[in-house]
Amino acid sequence: MEKVLVVKSIDELRAKLKEYNGKTVGLVPTMGYLHKGHASLVEKAREENDIVVVSVFVNPIQFGPNEDLETYPRDLDRDIEIVSSSGGDIVFAPSVEEMYPEKAEVFVDLESEIGEKLCGESRPGHFRGVMTVVSKLFNIVGADRAYFGQKDAQQVTIIEKMVRELNFPVKIVRCPILRESDGLAMSSRNVYLSAQERSEATVLYKSILRVQREFESGEHRVEKLKEIALEEIGKSPIAEVEYVEILDSRTLGNIERVNGPALMAMAVRFGKTRLIDNCLLEV
Amino acid sequence: MEKVLVVKSIDELRAKLKEYNGKTVGLVPTMGYLHKGHASLVEKAREENDIVVVSVFVNPIQFGPNEDLETYPRDLDRDIEIVSSSGGDIVFAPSVEEMYPEKAEVFVDLESEIGEKLCGESRPGHFRGVMTVVSKLFNIVGADRAYFGQKDAQQVTIIEKMVRELNFPVKIVRCPILRESDGLAMSSRNVYLSAQERSEATVLYKSILRVQREFESGEHRVEKLKEIALEEIGKSPIAEVEYVEILDSRTLGNIERVNGPALMAMAVRFGKTRLIDNCLLEV
């Protein structure tokens, strides 16, 4: 295909994909307002599949009542251009009514420490909404592979667990975080930041770099590494830390020392904007 | 295929089904100890699909702590014969370890009146277990059609809702209740009944017949129809009624009069054995 096909209905998407029976399909689920991070997922999917579907859907059931569902940035025309230039074939951009014709009452959820830590604590119901919509997308698209960014580390860990436990016939591909030239992790929400906030938000990556440095110099005590991160983030007077955690990267369980692969993850508010970032620490 | 293929591993089943790419697949999910009711599902699937898979799996997560998981009757050799004589191609009989290699922590669940009524009230967690295992089976088999008995009316209503909301690419086929010559609905659990219990359990179908007769004679008041059913069931001194309900058959919501399609459903204990039965009442 040369031109990106934009599909808004589930039936139309299924009919289209049926034409490609036998070809491999890669799915990149997104909430739109795409940036280079998303583009890198689409490019990866392009390398590995015959057909690349990018879904653009701001999923209401993963937002809490006081979150930014209404103001979440949207620009479908720009998204289509980015998908096109990254090698995607189909943009699936359903309406809320198409995805939820009835009030959602069937959910995929998890009862696990993995869902209660980090963003699970501050955003109750968030991962239930994510798992439910991703299940719907898997069932609609029937993809062979699905691409998720490591930026949302807890999300991709949970999706991998869901795929494993519910036997979804799809391979999850984790893709690395993309960063702006000053290190800020790319995010659709960065557009919310004022000039000052945007400038100060660089403390997140600075804290990651400093922790990585200390870790490589032999500091493996979690409390100490967290202190270092908090000190670095504290250099911004407007940064409000929601959490900084270092956890077992597979189970998201608490650890006291980094002996195996660990995830350092943080959520920090700058004004009204909540940013997340993370890195892996491996011995 | 002439002989039934018995498969115990998910990977082997998937590999086998991949060989039949392009053929239609019908799935009959069962807990085994098959009877003519199951056989009728397999025969229906045989008529409508190229390949018929019958799963035989006593799903632990749909049993409550005080229920009959341990004693639930099992006889795989007999099941294979029944599948064979009903025209099935593959028996998928995984172990508990194959289906749940880790402790189950990801569940499909519903938050709806539909799940809280009838068996949902007396068997908390039951439908969550059913929805979760059926999701797994759908994902493993990738069936075009799946066959469920109307005997478990609430179950099939919930599965239909799940398929609709989560967009599973499968068509649910409801099949009628099969009955013994004296009217008792066929069930794997009938084997639990003593001779006396077996004889008295016929009050269930007698109550259904009497309610249907009164309904056809113009009695549409739900309270009155329930009274008639309870009176008929009460003719067995050992029958212990768990519920007798008449509800909107689509939403399972309460009604006072039968104006649209309604479901009369009952759960009654005879000794230690809990039996369910139901019928549709339509104007």
UniProtKB/TrEMBL annotation, chains A, B:
Claim: Ligase is one of the keywords in the record: yes
Database matches in NCBIfam families: cyt_tran_rel, panC
Any one GO CC term of the record: cytosol
Protein name: Pantothenate synthetase
Binding site residues for beta-alanine: Q62
Sequence similarity: Belongs to the pantothenate synthetase family.
Location in the cell: Cytoplasm
Subunit description: Homodimer.
Binding-site list for (R)-pantoate: Q62, Q155
Keywords: ATP-binding, Cytoplasm, Ligase, Nucleotide-binding, Pantothenate biosynthesis
PANTHER family referenced in this protein's UniProt entry, alphabetically: CYTIDYLATE KINASE/PANTOATE-BETA-ALANINE LIGASE, PANTOATE--BETA-ALANINE LIGASE
Pathway noted in the entry: Cofactor biosynthesis; (R)-pantothenate biosynthesis; (R)-pantothenate from (R)-pantoate and beta-alanine: step 1/1
EC number: 6.3.2.1
Other information: The reaction proceeds by a bi uni uni bi ping pong mechanism.
GO biological process, one term: pantothenate biosynthetic process
Chief place where the protein resides: cytoplasm
GO MF term (any one): pantoate-beta-alanine ligase activity
Residues that, per the record, bind ATP: 31-38, 149-152, 178, 186-189
Active site: H38 (proton donor)
InterPro entries to which the protein is assigned, alphabetical: Cyt_trans-like, Pantoate_ligase, Pantoate_ligase_C, Rossmann-like_a/b/a_fold
Function noted in UniProt: Catalyzes the condensation of pantoate with beta-alanine in an ATP-dependent reaction via a pantoyl-adenylate intermediate.
Annotated catalysed reactions: (R)-pantoate + beta-alanine + ATP = (R)-pantothenate + AMP + diphosphate + H(+)
